[in-house]
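Project outcomes to date are best conveyed with an example. Our students and postdoctoral researchers have been running inverse folding experiments weekly, and each run begins with a structure described purely in tokens. The record below, which covers 457 residues, was selected by the lab manager from last quarter's runs and is presented without edits.
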């Protein structure tokens, strides 16, 4: 009996070895040859000093230390976080592991995490601290640290970040870098431009932040922050040049697409900078990295927003009674031919599923994005691999399912309560259902244009 079992075991080992012999000459899955390329590409961008991941994965020792947890979170699909279904639509820089990659990690852990021959060593790519894009041309930071009181309450602020540069300049990309990655939940950044000689002092004047709850009107807020020109008229405000949500990376298009002009004097104005609750005092000093461009954008990008605060209503109105799972939709008709570049689906804690697709006038369906397990923590800007043409007359249809039952572990209320949109409130405990997309006017041949920026400069 005993011999029989050993015999079976030996046979299994023989099969296992055979299987690996086909993968490498040495017959083993090693860190240097197989695992490092997977980790450095898919994990290290977040798991390195100063980024959102709670520990670093930048060397053999660090990965080995976490090997079993890594096997668990990759098998379950929890890491790397990539909510969009890759079988429905692929995007630029998507982070998900193939079955083969997951299995390689599992095999490596089962074999005792061997390092392997140093001749096969994969070098750690160059990462720059505090940026995903590389060394910026200009950094625009908050004037001083903001104190987030340890009172377990959400904080919503308007924040002004003024800057002064030598000459008017075109910029290619803007990267928001949260100072406190744990507490900064989201923000929308607008760009204010002062044309000479409209305003003399921009840095020393006015409040640099105002608590949103104390804002009675936009006029009053602008007055307190001294936003207007010296003669009281309003400067140019370009909305939504940058936004931040957990996990979001800045979008960079190939040369000539998108971008902005900034003037010598200007400011970023953050609307509803949202700091999450904390039981102990904490601080934040967030900043923008700015990347210059050679000239004006050849094709400026446009943006539309559907659903909450957008061009198309949520149907039925977004009210989710307690103990229900409910699906809402929103539809908009596209009047001109457009080339879609980037999508941003947005819901809060009760979000469960998100689906968006276009239907052309000849009834063809164009898949846009499908998220089967919505996770509030990972809200990306999804950029298409190539520009995607949506012909005039198509409708874009968005469906969102919300789970307001006790079985939703993210439900902020226990027992569940009615949750709805409230005047576009961005509080996490209210809901939103939004679909924002960035596009260009269509030009023949756009379908062939790949959207991955080769490099920032
Ligand atoms: C977009 C950024 C990002 C990427 C990419 C990413 N992680 Fe994470 N990872 C995080 C953050 C943030 C957390 C903390 C999440 C939390 O606590 O909810 C985390 C948590 C973890 C944990 C701890 C989970 C636990 O249960 O304690 C492990 C292990 C992990 N990541 C491994 C990986 C591996 C392996 C990869 C690549 C295959 C990866 N991560 C890719 C951001 C990232």
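After processing, the design step wrote out the following sequence:
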């Amino acid at each position: 009996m005993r011999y029989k079992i050993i015999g079976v075991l030996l046979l299994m080992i023989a099969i296992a070895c055979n299987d690996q012999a086909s993968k490498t000459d040495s017959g083993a899955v090693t860190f240097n040859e197989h695992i490092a390329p997977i980790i450095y590409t898919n994990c290290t961008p977040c798991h390195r000093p100063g980024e959102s991941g709670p520990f670093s994965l930048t060397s053999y020792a660090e990965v080995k230390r976490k090997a079993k947890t890594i096997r668990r979170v990759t098998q379950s699909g929890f890491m790397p976080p990539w909510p969009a279904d890759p079988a429905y639509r692929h995007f630029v820089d998507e982070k998900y592991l193939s079955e083969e990659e997951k299995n390689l990690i599992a095999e490596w852990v089962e074999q005792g995490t061997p390092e392997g021959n140093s001749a096969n060593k994969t070098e750690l790519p160059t990462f720059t601290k505090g940026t995903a894009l590389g060394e910026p041309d200009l950094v625009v930071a908050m004037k001083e640290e903001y104190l987030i009181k340890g009172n377990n309450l959400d904080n919503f602020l308007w924040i002004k970040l003024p800057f002064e540069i030598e000459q008017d300049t075109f910029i290619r990309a803007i990267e928001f870098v949260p100072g406190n990655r744990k507490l900064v939940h989201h923000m929308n950044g607008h760009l204010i431009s002062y044309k000479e000689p409209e305003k003399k002092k921009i840095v020393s004047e006015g409040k640099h932040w105002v608590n949103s709850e104390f804002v009675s009107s936009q006029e009053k807020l602008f007055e307190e922050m001294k936003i207007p020109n010296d003669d009281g008229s309003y400067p140019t405000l370009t909305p939504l040049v940058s936004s931040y949500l957990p996990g979001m990376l800045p979008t960079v298009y190939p040369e000539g697409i998108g971008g902005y002009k900034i003037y010598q004097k200007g400011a970023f104005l953050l609307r509803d900078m949202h700091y999450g609750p904390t039981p102990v005092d904490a601080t934040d000093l967030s900043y923008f990295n700015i990347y210059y461009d050679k000239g004006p954008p050849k094709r400026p990008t446009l943006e539309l927003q559907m659903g909450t605060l957008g061009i198309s209503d949520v149907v039925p109105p977004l009210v989710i009674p307690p103990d229900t799972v409910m699906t809402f939709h929103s539809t908009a008709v596209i009047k001109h031919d457009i080339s879609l570049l980037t999508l941003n689906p947005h819901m809060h804690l009760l979000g469960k599923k998100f689906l968006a697709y276009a239907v052309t006038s000849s009834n063809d369906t164009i898949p846009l994005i499908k998220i089967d397990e919505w996770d509030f923590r990972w809200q990306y800007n999804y950029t298409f691999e190539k520009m995607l043409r949506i012909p005039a007359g198509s409708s874009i249809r968005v469906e969102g399912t919300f789970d307001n039952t006790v079985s939703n572990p993210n439900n902020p209320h226990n027992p569940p309560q009615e949750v709805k949109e409230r005047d576009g409130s961005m509080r996490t405990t209210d809901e939103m259902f939004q679909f924002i997309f960035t596009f260009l006017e269509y030009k023949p041949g756009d379908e062939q244009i790949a959207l991955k920026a080769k490099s920032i400069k």
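The helical segments are 2-21, 31-42, 60-65, 67-76, 99-110, 218-224. Residues 1-25 have pLDDT under 50 and may be disordered. The training component of this project remains on track.
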